[in-house]
């Protein structure tokens, strides 16, 4: 069911958030963090640093370069580099730890039902993805589903900044208002799309209290409701 706050104007492009929109990302992130931690725990001196060591390293690199907040990959890589150097170990340990994380991060299988939905929507719209995350869609079965994938960091500031939406419109040769962005977060997806003058559909499936008080054009509680756009 789609609940409308205002009419959706005709659009040419559907933009999708990835994590927790097209698949449940919670167990994936948990597994990826565990894979990183399992490697780090094998390093001499790591356990002696205490439970807060990793978070302290993250805070340190962000404090040194606040622009990192827009790039979750660089935060992790730089925090790992800082952490291993702090305990006197070589860079390859940071690289290995990140690789363990990245491999587990993309062990995703999107349901056949969602894939069929995307294929159906392609008949009417151009499909793209705009994400604040760092999942590599080429590594699982979302490969080749999108004309364009834009990631915070390499492609611009993270949502809710308008950068990624503006870049998408420019790359595709469409007006911002011809893009409908679908995502699970009011704070990043809906606010970002609204900031950029795009249309927005909120997938309200996380049970989270968001800070943003603006309204999406439309609200759904199941991604399959988008069949109504076909």
UniProtKB/TrEMBL annotation:
The keyword Magnesium applies. This is HAD-IA family hydrolase. It comes from the Bacteria. One of its GO terms (molecular function) is hydrolase activity. The keyword Magnesium applies. Its cofactor is Mg(2+). It holds the Pfam family Hydrolase. Keywords: Hydrolase, Magnesium. InterPro entries: HAD-like_hydrolase, HAD-like_sf, HAD-SF_hydro_IA, HAD_sf. The lineage of its organism: Bacteria, Pseudomonadati, Pseudomonadota, Gammaproteobacteria, Alteromonadales.
């Amino acid at each position: 069911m789609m609940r409308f706050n205002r009419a959706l104007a005709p659009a040419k492009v559907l933009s999708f958030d990835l994590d927790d929109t097209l698949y449940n990302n919670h167990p994936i992130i948990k597994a990826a963090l565990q894979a990183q931690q399992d490697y780090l725990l094998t390093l001499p001196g790591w356990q002696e640093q205490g439970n807060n060591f990793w978070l302290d390293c993250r805070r340190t690199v962000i404090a040194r370069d606040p622009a990192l907040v827009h790039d979750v990959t660089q935060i992790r890589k730089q925090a790992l580099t800082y952490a291993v150097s702090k305990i006197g170990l070589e860079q390859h340990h940071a690289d290995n730890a990140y690789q363990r994380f990245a491999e587990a991060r993309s062990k995703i299988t999107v349901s056949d039902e969602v894939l069929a939905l995307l294929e159906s929507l392609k008949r009417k719209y151009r499909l793209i993805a705009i994400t604040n995350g760092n999942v590599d869609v080429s590594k699982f079965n979302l490969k080749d589903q999108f004309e364009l994938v834009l990631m915070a960091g390499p492609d611009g500031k993270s949502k809710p900044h308008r950068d990624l939406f503006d870049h998408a419109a420019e790359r595709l040769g469409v007006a911002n208002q011809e893009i409908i962005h679908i995502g699970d977060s009011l704070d990043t997806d809906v606010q970002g799309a609204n900031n950029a003058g795009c249309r927005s559909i909120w997938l309200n499936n996380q049970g989270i209290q968001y800070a943003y008080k603006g309204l999406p054009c439309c609200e759904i509680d199941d991604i399959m409701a988008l069949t109504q756009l076909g």
